[in-house]
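Go through this:
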Amino acid sequence: MPVAPAALTLHELREQIAAGALDPRALLRDLLERISRLNPSLRAYIAVDPERVLAQLEARLQHGPRGPLFGIPITVKDNLCVSGEETACGSQILSGFRPPYHATVVERLLQAGAVVIPRANMDEFAFGSSTETSAFGPTRNPWDPARVPGGSSGGSAAAVAADVAIAALGTDTGGSIRQPASFCGVVGLKPTYGRVSRYGLIAFASSLDQAGPLTKDVTDCALLLSVIAGQDARDSTSAPMPVPDYLAALSEPVKGLRVGVPALPSDGLDPQVAAALEEAQRVLERLGMRPVPVELPHIRHAVETYYIIATAEASSNLARYDGVRYGWRATALPAGPARGGGIDASSAQRGLLPMYLQTRAQGFGAEAVRRILLGTYVLSRGYYDAYYLQGMKVRTLMKRDFDAALAQCDALLLPTAPTPAFRLGEKLADPLQMYLSDIYTISANLAGVPAMSVPCGLSREGLPIGLQLIGAPFQEAMLLRVARAYEQATDWHRRRPALAAAGTAR
């Protein structure tokens, strides 16, 4: 039975389109049909406008550019600005916001000839590990609709796994690409901080956020990263580093490379995940890689350090959403004069403070409110030194740990997540348990190093398990090289969720 175009990988589609064997119109029609059929229950996308997407393709076919992604649809998360398209960051408070500019990563997709499909679902402002905090409803895991797809890039990961996206962009602040990649059985990469521009990425925590690819295999990941990586004058934190040939790196041998195996906190680690990781290590050893024990002594403090630094930055970044300049504004305001010192009693100003209060109270969801309050607290007078400053000191120690460990090896091997995907609603009432879902991913963001997740097994319940590879700064090519070698020695990346229609196996 012929394979449907939407089920093919990015690199397979590129080859077929370049050879004239596939019309991009047929590809897009097949993809949009799958979206219309599966998305109402999956909710991987907040919304898709087929007419706008089809018009975008026709413009691309007529006027180019004919770049490396010519005619191929790429899905982007709802916190990456697409000019003229609603970009709400999964939140009520930004509903109706249509940015007048593209994020740099979106711009680079378009320059490469891609067709951009916006609005993959996400946790509100990327605050979550399950895509349950979205103001537009939760995304479901294609492997089991009763389970979460991970978060915050759960929409992007679920879309790729269910073949309602060819490939996607997500963002990763504490694991938000890698953890959903693990839960959905796809490949996800968080680049080095500064490797990919953050211009046009709606900020959660500015010193931690990075955009990156979610794909069906490692080759697709290398291809998509090669398009979006590189310095951007509009982002002062983007690094003036040349972009290597990531695709060429995939064919380099791994024999003789060293894989670092750290001792990690095992509280909450599912035995099935531990067993899959041990087997993955054996595969790498059979490929000629040498295991090296390393130490990451401060990783045990990763969660508390992250939730001090990240919430502090979120509190500052989200202060701008007040209902005045853009986004949503509350209309049902309390009558009477505003309370609070310094507010003039004129009729124009009496409603200003109530409007601020009602807009923020109604516009933000419970998790966003929790993080804003926590971040404001740790930055407040009398607590800044005790919490935020101490957190920054531990972050420095963690960065030194990674520098020392990666001086002894070429890549570190860790679990991506402590468990396979959990059930919808299982952890919503216990934020601490939800936060612990990212225990193995957070430290790479704090250290600013690249990390990726690759499928490495299935649980007894048939749920994907991912392994995590972490590298030295700007060594994405090394990670992709190791990941590709592992992928070629196994077939986990070829396993499909039951949601995928018959006859579309890749």
Observations:
- Strands lie at 73-77, 115-120, 168-172, 187-190, 210-215, 258-262, 290-294, 411-415, 451-458, 464-470.
